[in-house]
Request: fold
Amino acid sequence: MKPHCKRRGRGILSAYYIKIIILSHYSKSLQPLPLMGSFRQYRKVAHLNVTHRRRQNFYALPSIEWQLLSNPPFNFLSTLDQIDDAIDANADIAREILKTGLESFGLESESHEKPPDWHGTAKASDLDKARSTIRQFYRDWSTEGEAERQASYEPVLRDLAVAFAAVAERGGVKVLVPGAGLGRLLLEMCRENYSVEGNEISYHQLLASNWVLNHSTRAKQFNLFPFISDFSNVVSRADQLKMVKVPDVHPAAAFANGNMGNSGSMTMTAGEFTEVYSADTKKDLFDAVTTVYFIDTASNLIRYIQTVYNCLKHG
Reply:
């Protein structure tokens, strides 16, 4: 994925840029086309698993029973119709992620050598990751997710402010964020003028963060229905059909308007944290390492700590 410093006439990211670096061994081992295919298949798979099979089971009931459930106060068929509409809205986001992902790999041009057929090649685990990635926009990029972001990201920002209170130029403070996800914490650090580098192993997260940071066109561009697959543990169908607007802020416009500080920078690297940052080239490179929703992913916590020690500046 190439650096994006300009937004095709929609504004310039000023002194900031977002760069996705796909490590050669990483991209070759993961074969990105089938992974991107999971976003392409989102609409079809969601309709099949969430509504189609429920309709089949519904009509398998004795007619007197399904007729009862299809009328008020249950309105089950009407609920499924609304969920189908919500799936289509979420699929519009998946389509945008897919489109910008293909462009980033240089596959949007008709003159490009036609890649092997990859439609329908996504694994079940990849399809599930695409679904959860789209749902995660609720926490990281909606107004309604602000409370959760305040609870999880704000303590990190406060601690950084205390640690570097005596630093006059925060642009010289280099912060590493392993498990950067959809990039919201990076954005919040960048608006505080830190020079931030995110690291993420998930292609789904990288593709989605690339879209929202580099290619979204305005705030509240899409409707998102984060809970449509949840038929249990909801107080009402209104909760299941809750709609939010994403993204709550337009990153490029905020940068172009000078609302995000003036000295920070933002980059993103792809790869497994310990492989990338235990290298000698990363030794003594960062002033701070911050993590949210990441430490619990460690299969070997000591290895994580050793990697943090390697890339942190000593003293």
Observations:
- DSSP finds 14 helices and seven strands in the chain.
- Residues 1-29 have pLDDT under 50 and may be disordered.
- The longest strand covers residues 195-200.
- Residues 76-104 form the longest helix (29 residues).
